[in-house]
From TrEMBL:
InterPro entries, A to Z: Na/ntran_symport, SNS_sf, YocR/YhdH-like
Keywords: Membrane, Symport, Transmembrane, Transmembrane helix, Transport
Ranges that cross the membrane: 12-31, 43-65, 142-161, 173-195, 215-236, 248-273, 341-360, 380-399, 420-441
NCBIfam families on file: Na_transp
Family named by the database record: Belongs to the sodium:neurotransmitter symporter (SNF) (TC 2.A.22) family.
CDD domains, sorted: SLC6sbd_Tyt1-Like
Subcellular location: Membrane
Major site of localization recorded for this protein: membrane
Pfam family, one: SNF
Domain of life: Bacteria
Protein name: Transporter
Origin species: Alkalihalophilus lindianensis
Protein's membrane topology: Multi-pass membrane protein
Length: 447
């Protein structure tokens, strides 16, 4: 028989775990390069506005569904809307998390490899070619597969320990370390000569530099960065005690996410400008440009190792939430043990991730719509399935979930008035679906 259903031991445990789910590749890897290529300060200001107006209501919605049902993602919709088509939202999220993990874990393997190389002093050097190094790591089959395997083994071990002893303890250790490492990097970056130009680029809005495409990217980043859409946080919030305040927890998670985005910008842009690099390098910013930036610093090897370690921490805490939705779905009936399901899930995800891991080397000639296996999977998940998941959840809140239950969940554990609930429901009914449809149409290239 399986284990008794657990709960988070404290509100801070839930908040740190939820923040860990949100703060990962999106906040540390994607946010700096999309900010750099979309106008800097103006993009950051729009991202903040959309996160508060779009991302926060979506996050509250997943929390309401999860705690309101006290079930993991698949069972939650079955309980709240039995014998209806709405139950497919949870299954959709399960498939999405599986596909996302199949390539997310490949990137996790790269980060793990870079972190090991950096801590052993093997990245920065007088004749180092950082572009060639990235190509070698991503294009060598055994490196990609070993990195993928180790990254998934770490996930399986943590998930096997359960909610309190696994995910909660790991996040209580990793998330504070992430903030400490980031603050060290920010302090180093801000003290470089010429750093002020980077600070101005990042924090001083120039709305003439933002394009309509940049506005839409900011909209998309606002909910991508919070891990909403695949019901991961429906599962996390199902372990939350009824006496805790959902809006307070959601605001805390959003605040931490925005703070990490701020720290990421302050760690990267001042250093890039101070050392004469361009902020518009795109996805290669982290793996190719940043080693070159750190190479110009005193104790650069140390600071690069710190950055990569915190990036590994953030990547792991996000992957925990993705694997948890899969593990919890298959242990809800109590007929299977968590350890066994976590192990089997890790193995299946490893097998599914092999094509993505080899798509930069042995399978580089395999293309779908002129995209590699890795890029095609990324496009399918990030640009189609995730916005669609967000839209379905917003429609479920608007059309199907019982209003009294939603009001009860939002007002429980705090002193908020009905006015807050009314504003949230208005945003979910009218504003959020419209914005998501606009982003979705844009990502399909229809606009």
């Amino acid at each position: 028989m399986g284990e008794q259903r657990e709960q988070w031991s404290s509100k801070i445990g839930f908040i740190l775990a939820s923040a860990g789910a949100a703060i990962g590749l999106g906040a540390i890897w994607k946010f700096p390069y999309v900010t750099g290529t979309n106008g800097g300060g103006a993009f950051f200001l729009l991202f903040i506005a959309f996160t508060l107006l779009i991302g926060l209501p979506m996050l509250i919605s997943e929390f309401v569904i999860g705690r309101g049902s006290k079930k993991e993602a698949v069972s939650a919709y079955q309980k709240l809307a039995p014998k209806s088509g709405w139950t497919w939202i949870g299954k959709f999220g399960l498939v999405g998390c599986f596909l996302l993990l199949s390539f997310y874990s490949v990137v996790g393997g790269w980060v793990l490899t870079y972190a090991i190389l950096a801590t052993s002093g093997q990245i920065i050097g007088p004749t180092a070619d950082y572009g060639a190094l990235f190509g070698s790591i991503t294009g060598t089959p055994w490196i990609g597969l070993v990195g993928l395997a180790i990254f998934l083994v770490i996930n399986v071990l943590v998930l096997s320990l359960g909610i309190r002893n696994g995910i909660e303890k790991a996040n209580k250790f990793l998330m504070p370390l992430l903030f400490v490492f980031f603050l060290i990097l920010v302090a180093r970056s801000l003290t470089l000569e010429g750093a002020s130009e980077g600070i101005r680029f990042f924090l001083q809005p120039d709305f003439y530099s933002i394009t309509s495409e940049g506005v839409l990217y900011a909209l998309g980043q606002s909910f991508f960065a919070l891990a909403v859409g695949f019901s991961c946080l429906v599962t996390y919030s199902s372990y939350l005690d009824k006496k805790e305040s959902i809006p307070t927890a959601a605001v805390s998670v959003v605040g931490m996410n925005l703070f990490v985005s701020l720290l990421a910008g302050l760690a990267i842009f001042p250093a890039i400008f101070a050392l004469g690099f361009e902020p518009t390098e795109g996805p290669g910013l982290l793996f190719i440009v940043l080693p070159a930036v750190f190479a110009e610093m005193v104790l650069g090897e140390l600071f690069l190792a710190l950055f990569l370690l915190l990036f590994l921490f953030a990547t792991l805490t996000s992957s925990f939430s993705l694997l948890e939705i899969i593990v919890s779905a298959f242990t809800e009936s109590k007929k299977r043990t968590r350890k066994r399901v976590a192990a089997y899930s890790g193995l299946v995800i490893f097998l599914a991730g092999i094509p993505a891991a080899l798509s930069f080397g042995a399978l580089s000639n395999v293309q779908f719509f002129n995209l590699s296996i890795f890029d095609a999977t990324d496009f399918l998940v990030s640009n189609i399935m995730l916005p669609l998941g967000c839209l379905l959840i917003s429609l479920f809140i608007s059309l199907r979930m019982e209003k009294r239950l939603m009001e009860q969940e939002i007002l429980s554990g705090n002193r908020l008035t009905n006015r807050f609930f009314t504003v949230w429901l208005f945003l979910m009914k009218y504003v959020v679906p419209l914005v998501i449809i606009i982003v979705f149409i844009n990502t399909l290239g229809i606009l």
